[in-house]
Specification:
Length: 363
């Protein structure tokens, strides 16, 4: 059974189940959900807790299987957590998880919590994950996209009795906040907590209304720029955001080589998928074969029909030149500075990826 994260409180009112599987790439949301489950379980007498982290191909699953059926002399109920950071339990793990899922039925003494990263479509179709879905509650945590982030921030502020000013000023404040944390929910959460400490809702008769200056002073320079978030912004054709992220990566001392690799890998992936489509492969199959999933899958589907083979070849050639620049070589008609060259390369890709967006808006 699938459960949306927002349905947790209503779900808990109906009572805990014996098996939960949490999967997604938003650590803050996963952690908060797991904390709420643990708190509810403790209130119902689950006093003992064991944690198993699956690491390596030779992980011993016998201990996990044994822990589910054994209680100490001092506990009537227990929580067993199984964390699989890779999302790949392996052959033995697949068998063990199916046994654990089946055993969870009718077991009121053990609450089993399985925690996974975001799963690709093939992994989610595996027998072990199917068993977890069939016999327990499965919760998927999708990323909070950039457009939804201001509203998410506003909701979190409201939970601690704070809000931004009404109208345009408030919207500007939320947009500024979202820009500074660049999609990093953990950073946003920490800054929201900081605002709660700096400007308590009941102090000074402010009724919890935060001004732009207060938010700016509190969250200035908290952004943690991510090379892979940069990739999504480039494929999304977001030129202004891309320029800001590149400046942020440079100021934080990120490696030019790593940034170039992320940009070049996207160009190479687009070229491989485009070639596969030209050879007769349907786009979904071409994307899957080239390991393009999630947000990038949607971005590729939107931009690739509008980018020609010659354009991709030119972008690939440009990426090759920038590879030499970031390693200290000079290229005719290109900036000698590595970061300037990266700005130019990212801008070239961004321009091509923005064209479908413009044409959609004009239509």
């Amino acid at each position: 059974m699938n459960l949306a994260p927002a349905q947790l409180q209503e779900h808990l009112k109906r009572g805990l189940k014996s098996l939960y599987t949490l999967h997604g790439d938003e650590p803050l949301l996963v952690q908060e959900f797991a904390d709420a489950l643990r708190a509810a379980a403790r209130a119902q007498g689950y006093t003992e807790r064991t944690v198993h982290t699956v690491a390596g191909a030779h992980f011993d699953w016998s201990e996990v299987l044994a822990s589910g059926g054994s209680l100490s002399l001092f506990a009537d109920k227990q929580i067993v957590e199984i964390r699989i950071p890779s999302g790949k339990p392996g052959k033995d793990g697949s068998v063990a998880l199916q046994q654990i899922a089946e055993r969870a039925q009718g077991d009121d003494s053990t609450l089993t919590l399985v925690m996974l990263p975001r799963l690709d479509s093939m992994t989610a179709k595996g027998a072990w994950f199917g068993a977890l879905e069939s016999f327990g509650i499965t919760v998927k945590f999708d990323p909070i996209d950039r457009r939804s982030l201001p509203q998410w921030i506003a909701q979190r502020l409201q939970q601690q009795g704070q809000r931004v000013a009404a109208g345009e000023e408030g919207q500007r404040t939320l947009q500024f906040f979202a820009d500074r944390v660049e999609g990093n929910l953990l950073a946003a959460h920490q800054e929201i907590q900081k605002l709660g400490l700096l400007y308590p809702a009941q102090s000074g008769g402010s009724d919890g209304i935060l001004s732009f200056d207060q938010v700016e002073n509190a969250v200035l320079n908290v952004a943690r720029y991510d090379v892979f978030k940069l990739s999504e912004a480039v494929l999304g054709g977001q030129a202004v955001r891309v320029a800001r992220m590149l400046d942020g990566l440079q100021s934080e001392g990120e490696s030019e080589v790593l940034v170039h690799w992320a940009l070049a890998e996207d160009i190479r992936s687009m070229k491989r998928v485009k070639d596969a489509i030209s050879a007769g492969r349907p786009m979904p199959m071409a994307l899957r074969e080239n390991r393009v999933w999630g947000i990038k899958e949607k971005l590729f589907e939107r931009v690739l029909p509008h980018i020609g083979d010659t354009t991709l070849a030119n972008l690939l050639h440009a990426a090759h030149k920038v590879d030499g620049i970031v390693k200290g070589l000079k290229q005719p008609d290109w900036p000698a500075d590595g970061w300037q060259a990266l700005h130019r390369l990212a801008g070239m890709v961004c321009e091509q990826c923005a064209a479908p967006v413009r044409s959609t808006r004009q239509a």
